[in-house]
Design a protein that fits this description.
Low-confidence stretches: none
Shape: globular
Strand order of the largest sheet: 2-8-7-6-5-3-4
Radius of gyration: 21 Å
Bound molecules: pyridoxal-5'-phosphate
Number of helices: 11
Distance between the termini: 48 Å
Mean pLDDT: 95
Structural class: alpha/beta
Length: about 375
């Protein structure tokens, strides 16, 4: 049978696997860091209204520059960070994955490289490969924090064109202190200069503040965000970035014309009208995240400090076997390939109870 490798695909794609978090039909799905709460009914109604309006104009292309949406996103960022952000600082795309892709198409590409400090979000490496950008895996400490000296050395030696810093980091949950981000930014500027992308997909769940104010006076610093997590709208596919206006102009060189559909723009605008309600769920999820940490520690697991809506825990001799045993009890968590560790997303209190019951049973099984 003809397979991928029988086709004349690019050499760097040969033998590789696509992104593949399993989408299994099990009672409790805590594996992709989604928000467990469906959108509230008044918002569903508002989306229907806005989409109905948009549908009347679907014979036309959408606003190519998504100005109204970017204006509302800029307001949200200003309100939540206390740092004045305007429409010229904001760009939006289909999920922050597309934002990252556009950044790599603009600042990476053939003959260029990007670095991330792993374990981290696997798509940074995968999108790099997809855009022909060489991928460099930078180091982390044993406790999954960034080893600043080693990271600075890796930047100086490799002179990457793009540096990814994920805070809070996925899959570990660890936040990166602003001083470390600033030091890495300086290291990256001294080496090349290069673009530093701070991926803040989970920032709303963090104990600390967004690093957004750092874009001031740093045109090579980009903060990327998403509506997939805190806004509970992973199905919407809306990501965005905040940066110097020159970065927003630059990504428009590679974006496909009319990349953000009128339906997407209408839906995202409706969600932004309900920011206060949606962010109310974030507080509940943070409390549930903290409960998971406490309970897992009490059960004797090793738990990585988390600033996100998920928790990394271990250690397991065979994490994949443990993943399977938890799945056998109807709970899907994530095996990110970090040796001895698994990751669980904070769900509803009932879902988290089901997960805790499952791991409690495993502990009992081990001790008998
Ligand atoms: C660190 C990080 N960045 C970006 C994304 C992608 O989010 P989006 O749904 O906006 O494409 C994820 C999704 O899990 C993530 O973990």
């Amino acid at each position: 049978m003809t397979g991928i490798d029988d086709l004349p695909v690019r050499d760097e794609l040969r033998g590789k696997s696509p992104y593949g978090a399993p989408q299994l039909d099990v009672p409790v799905r805590l594996n992709t860091n989604e928000n467990p709460y469906p959108l509230p009914e008044p918002l569903v109604e508002r989306i229907a209204e806005r989409v109905r309006e948009a549908a009347r104009n679907l014979n036309r292309y959408p606003d190519r520059d998504a100005v109204e949406l970017r204006t509302r996103l800029a307001e949200y960022l200003t309100d939540t960070s206390g740092h004045e952000v305007g429409v010229a600082n904001v760009w939006a795309a289909n999920g922050s994955n597309e934002v990252i892709q556009q950044l790599l198409q603009t600042f990476g590409g053939p003959g260029r490289t990007a670095i991330g400090f792993e374990p981290s979000y696997s798509m940074h490496g995968l999108i790099s490969r997809g855009t022909g950008t060489g991928w460099i895996s930078g180091p982390r400490n044993e406790d999954f924090t960034i080893d600043l000296a080693a990271a600075e050395k890796a930047i100086a030696e490799n002179q990457p064109d793009v540096v990814f810093i994920t805070t809070p980091n996925n899959p570990t949950g660890t936040a990166v202190p602003p001083e470390t981000v600033l030091a890495l930014y300086e290291a990256a500027q001294a080496a090349k200069p290069s673009m530093v992308v701070v991926d803040e997909a989970y920032i709303e769940f963090s104990h600390g503040d967004s690093l957004l104010p750092l874009i001031e006076g740093r045109p090579n610093l980009v903060v990327s965000r998403t509506m997939s997590k805190a806004f509970g709208a992973a199905g919407l596919r809306l990501g965005y970035l905040a940066a110097h206006p020159a970065v927003v102009d630059a990504v428009q060189l590679v974006r496909l014309p009319y990349h953000l559909s009128a339906v997407t723009q209408a839906t995202a605008l409706a969600a932004l009208e309900h920011t206060a309600t949606l962010l109310g769920y974030v507080e509940q999820l943070k409390a549930e995240r903290d409960r998971l940490v406490t309970e897992l520690l009490a059960l004797g697991y090793e738990v990585t400090a988390s600033d996100a809506n998920f928790v990394q825990f271990g250690r397991f001799e065979d994490s994949h076997e443990t993943w399977r045993k938890i799945l056998d009890r109807g709970v899907l968590v994530r095996d990110n390939g970090v040796p001895g560790r698994l990751r669980v997303t904070a769900g509803t209190p009932e879902e988290n109870d089901a997960f805790l019951d499952a791991v409690r049973e495993l502990k009992k099984e081990q001790s008998t």
